[in-house]
Design goal:
3 domains; alpha/beta; Alpha-Beta Plaits; Rossmann fold; Phage tail protein beta-alpha-beta fold; seven-stranded parallel beta sheet
């Protein structure tokens, strides 16, 4: 019976399953939910629910999903409105482009080209880039100076034709931006030759949160009995959720929020609950399931917005959030984000956090593959994948050898007077982090013990 409550809880929390295993936020009672464009390359089908998106935003999403190079006739900006389900790409393009002509040109050995124009195909000359596409940011570098280096990073950046747009002083790490990818590559070579001052030069990456939005239906989720408790010594167990911005929560849940910090200014423009909002609510569900004593919980949340108005977060800004959270007294991190590219600077920050007694939960990813994603693949992180009500891996959940635990890949939250289903390794991570924090609060156990309990009682079977 050792800590059997953990195992029972995760089985019960996963009772809602979605046909086909898509991951996302689903409105339970709403005929039309959050705006979304889902281009499913595997099934060659497209779903859209778009209201007033700029043309470039729609084309950027298409480029991200397909890898196509997209060129448009200059001066054709317009809002796009479209709602449909399960259309093949050609029909979807006709509906999405609202009467504009287009030509899709396959190219052997290279990315296909999509040309969009009014009358003359040759006038489609303006390339549409997706500035938030996950992966390496080609015109940026992260430069780490050696301890005791006297070089001025600002002067060094000017000499190289770049500028400093971010810093993590405790790591002597700086984010440099250049006008072009070619300029960044030239600067890299010059920096790597300066072995007296430069410790390391690395890339900066964009990562996405592992969830998407769709519409659907679900019964409401029972709200856990949960209330904050004031500690006699004034000390709380502080958890940091590193994610998007969050909307205001219900009054009883807002009582758990100590602060909101915009590491990156701005907020999402999407309808419905934002990803950070959904993760905060899911975390509190996990907390309420394991720390529901009558006296309440001394767990508190600090929320860090590393996305701003962007659809992806950079590894450098996530690193900044980790250090800010540690400085603000957090001892547990919940990170429902992932990417294929390992960031050494972030890895070092997380290792330092754990070595100082902290606990980190990170999402394994929703590719349905054994590909290790970062930061979940770091050995000092608890990597969380998604399971169903029978403790079986969800079809979309990653299952690499670096995965440590499996938590329910489905949660239900209330927002805007409606119930929303959330699926993916994102809510699994937030749920596991909440359960771990609740156990630590209720028992007073050190976080090293909490880690052992979580890993033992939330097993993952690939």
């Amino acid at each position: 019976m050792r800590h059997r409550w953990l195992r029972i809880l995760v089985l019960c929390a996963g009772y809602v399953l979605l046909a086909g295993g898509p991951r996302g936020l689903l409105a339970a009672d709403k005929p039309s939910a959050a705006s979304a464009l889902l281009w499913q390359s595997a099934s060659n089908r497209v779903d859209a629910r778009i209201s007033g998106w700029p043309l470039d935003k729609v084309l950027g999403r298409i480029s991200r999903a397909t890898g196509w190079e997209i060129f448009v006739e200059p001066g054709m900006e317009r809002p796009i409105n479209a709602t449909f389900t399960g259309l093949p790409p050609q029909q979807a393009l006709s509906r999405l482009l609202g009467g504009l002509s287009f030509s899709l040109q396959p190219r052997p050995g290279a990315a296909a080209r999509l040309l969009i124009y009014q009358n003359d195909r040759d006038r489609a000359t303006r390339r549409v880039e997706d500035p938030q596409r996950p992966g390496r940011i080609p015109n940026e570098l992260i430069v780490r100076l050696k301890p005791g280096s006297k070089v001025s990073i600002e002067q060094l950046a000017r000499e190289l034709g770049g500028k400093v747009i971010g810093k993590v002083d405790k790591l002597n790490a700086y984010r440099l931006q250049f006008e072009t990818a070619e300029a960044a590559e030239a600067a890299r070579k010059m920096l790597e030759a300066r072995t007296d001052d430069i410790a390391k030069v690395e890339n900066n990456y964009r990562w996405e949160p592992p969830t998407e939005m769709e519409t659907g239906a679900s019964p409401p989720s029972p709200a856990p009995a949960l209330k904050p408790r004031i500690s006699p010594d004034g000390k709380n167990l502080v958890v940091a959720i590193i994610d998007t911005a969050t909307q205001p929560l219900s009054p009883e849940h807002e009582a758990f929020i100590l602060s909101r910090t915009d590491v990156v200014p701005g907020q999402p423009a999407d309808d419905g609950p934002w990803h950070g909002t959904a993760m905060a609510e899911t975390f509190l569900q996990g907390l309420g399931s394991t720390d529901n004593m009558e006296a309440g919980s001394n767990v508190r949340l600090r929320l860090y917005n590393t996305y701003g108005a962007n659809e992806s977060a950079t590894t450098f800004d996530v690193t900044r959030a980790v250090f800010q959270a540690a400085q603000d007294g957090a001892t547990i991190l919940s990170m429902s984000l992932a990417g294929p590219d390992r960031s050494p600077v972030l890895s070092d920050a997380l290792q330092s956090f754990v070595q100082q007694g902290g606990l980190v939960f990170a999402a394994a990813g929703n590719d349905g593959s054994n590909l290790p994603l970062s930061p979940a693949s770091d050995p000092w992180v608890i990597a969380v994948s998604g399971v169903d009500g029978n403790q079986q891996r969800m079809p979309w959940a990653n299952y690499s050898s670096t995965v440590d635990v499996g938590a329910s890949g489905t949660s239900i939250i209330s927002f805007g007077g409606m119930n929303w289903i959330i699926t993916g390794t994102s809510p699994a991570t937030a749920l596991a982090a909440g359960m771990g924090a609740g156990y630590a609060s209720r028992t007073g156990s050190p976080l090293s013990t909490v880690r052992n309990v979580i890993v033992r009682d939330l097993p993952f079977y690939p």
